[in-house]
């Protein structure tokens, strides 16, 4: 059995995407647990026994499931799509800022440009860090004034 690695993204057979945070050991039983986080709401973290995480879908209970396994590792392109989907699903600039910070380790200049375009933000010239800081600063500023705009 393959053991999930931190930062890998898996698709649940019901369609949601999750990032593995760690494979932990239960303190009482020694059982291995996969600790993972929703890409839709990064405040939601879960733990599931490794055996269950890597198990096949119960086809009697879920006959219409398209996946064979409960969780399937996604490709890098799917991970990029999941990041973009999570960013686009945010309803406020504050949520977009949080999503940006959460995906910092996976950002490329191309992905930063795409995220900025979705918000009509022009990035500064420079390396990835400069572009990231520019987008982060713009989202923070918009978030600050978003609350004021909504109250009027």
Features:
152 residues; alpha+beta; SH3 type barrels; 2 domains; five-stranded antiparallel sheet; 5 helices; 5 strands; elongated
Protein architecture, described:
With 152 residues, this protein is an alpha+beta fold. It has 2 domains: 9-73, DUF1653-like domain (SH3 type barrels); 76-151, no CATH class. 41% of the residues lie in helices and 18% in strands. The chain contains 5 helices and 5 strands; from the N terminus they run ββββαβαααα. Strands 4-3-2-1-5 form a 5-stranded antiparallel sheet. Strand 2 (17-25) and strand 3 form a beta hairpin. The model has no long low-confidence stretch (mean pLDDT 87).
Annotate the secondary structure layout:
Layout: E1 9-12, E2 17-25, E3 32-38, E4 45-49, H1 50-53, E5 71-73, H2 76-89, H3 93-102, H4 109-118, H5 128-151
Antiparallel strand pairs: 1-2, 1-5, 2-3, 3-4
From the structure provided, what is the oligomeric state, counting identical versus distinct chains? single chain
User: How much helical structure, as a percent, in the residues?
Assistant: 40-55%
Beta-strand residue fraction: 15-25%
Return the average pLDDT rounded to an integer: 87
- Tell me the distance between the termini: 57 Å
Structure summarized in a few sentences:
By secondary structure, this protein is of the alpha+beta class. Helices cover 41% and strands 18% of the residues.
């Amino acid at each position: 059995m393959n053991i999930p690695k931190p930062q890998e993204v898996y698709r649940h057979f019901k369609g949601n995407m999750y990032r593995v945070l760690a494979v932990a050991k239960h303190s009482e039983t020694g059982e291995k647990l996969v600790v993972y986080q929703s890409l839709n709401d990064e405040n939601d973290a879960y733990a599931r026994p490794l055996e269950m995480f890597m198990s096949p879908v119960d086809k009697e209970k879920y006959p219409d499931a398209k996946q064979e396994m409960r969780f399937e590792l996604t490709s890098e392109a799917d991970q990029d799509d999941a990041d973009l989907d999570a960013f686009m699903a945010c309803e406020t600039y504050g949520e977009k800022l949080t999503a940006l910070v959460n995906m910092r380790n996976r950002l490329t200049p191309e992905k930063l440009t795409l995220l900025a375009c979705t918000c009509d933000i022009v990035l500064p010239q420079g390396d990835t860090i400069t572009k990231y800081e520019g987008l982060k600063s713009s989202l923070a500023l918009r978030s600050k004034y978003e609350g004021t705009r909504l109250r009027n």
